[in-house]
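Task 17 of the worksheet. Students: predict the tertiary structure of the chain below and write it out as structure tokens. Keep your answer in the requested format; marks are given for formatting as well as content.
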Amino acid sequence: MKQPQYSKFSPLTVTVKQNIRQLRRGAGYSMNEGARLMGISRKQLEDIETIRNYGSHIDLEILAKMTVIYKVSLDELIGDLPQDNYSDLFERPRKRRGPAAG
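Model answer:
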């Protein structure tokens, strides 16, 4: 997976965030309704779904709620994982990507 330059997240996290957004939209829930079902604010859901540097990481409780609300397994939410635990899929960028702001 080619990772956008603006993301602070690992490719795995980006995939999960995109899957969460697709599940919410596929179920026909607005951002407000999705947040209500999750028991979080709309802003928190926006931060969970975004892959840009200002987004937030996803914690285990949120993933667990997603599996219940959208009736999917963690395997479906996460997708295919490589056999190598040193894969780039698990690498979280530690440095700013792209040109420095001037």
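Marker's comment: The mean pLDDT is 84. The chain is about 45% helix and 0% strand.
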